[in-house]
UniProtKB/TrEMBL annotation:
Residues 44-137 form the Pyridoxamine 5'-phosphate oxidase N-terminal domain. It comes from the Bacteria. SUPFAM superfamilies: FMN-binding split barrel. Pfam families: PNPOx_N. This is Pyridoxamine 5'-phosphate oxidase N-terminal domain-containing protein. It comes from Ascidiaceihabitans donghaensis.
């Protein structure tokens, strides 16, 4: 893996940083030995995502961003710094796949809106044939899903945790269930108790 700052802080970027007095302030952060490996926190976070934003580079030089998502667990760990997922039939434009045929570099945002966490990743990606990689296809294919058209494998080259500032919290149905599920269960139990009490009172009939 590479140091994030050495990969991303180009001379033009450093010139901008110098203009606000920020140049050189990140060296200790990115120079730590553990930053040259994907740690358990990073991998666990990535594997628990249900959505990714993946940017590729076109032959015209324009970046292209593609959303990929699925149920919890659709991203699989394949190695210490390698992940993959099954790529299913989409809109048939195949822009990301075509871009990767010419330039395998990707930039990825992995978001946790509920907790305002964001993991940025740089890497090298491949779109592999299902027919030529049957064992990998079996590993990445999701249960109760149709057969994938391709397999995407990403080798992580660097990463950085991003500031939570300005991330608007959003919750999917699973997160909402975790958040308010206990209170709903309590209310359902209380409603059942009140309905039982009401039924018992009706059965007693009017008092004479």
């Amino acid at each position: 893996m590479s140091r994030y700052d050495e990969m991303m802080f180009t001379p033009a970027v450093e010139a901008r940083q110098a203009g606000i007095g920020a140049k050189g302030k990140f060296a200790s952060r990115y120079g730590q030995p553990e930053r040259l490996n994907v740690g358990a926190d990073e991998m666990d976070f990535l594997l628990s995502r249900t959505t990714l934003y993946i940017a590729t580079v076109s032959e015209t030089g324009w970046p292209y961003i593609q959303h990929r998502g699925g149920p919890l667990g659709f991203i699989k760990q394949l190695g210490d710094t390698q992940v993959g997922f099954a790529d299913y039939r989409g809109n048939r434009q195949l822009i990301s796949a075509g871009n990767l045929d010419k330039d395998d570099r990707v930039s990825i945002f992995a978001m946790d809106y509920a907790r305002k966490n964001r993991l940025k990743l740089q890497g090298h990606a491949q779109m592999l044939s299902v027919e030529d990689n049957p064992e990998l296809a079996a590993q990445l294919t999701l249960m109760d899903h149709p057969a994938p058209e391709r397999l995407m494998v990403i080798d992580i080259a660097s990463y950085d945790w991003n500031c939570p500032k300005y991330i608007t919290p959003r919750f999917d149905t699973g997160e909402m269930t975790q958040l308010i599920g206990p209170e709903i269960s309590r209310l359902e139990t209380r409603i059942a108790e009140l309905e039982a009490e009401n039924a018992a009172l009706r059965n007693e009939g009017p008092q004479k």
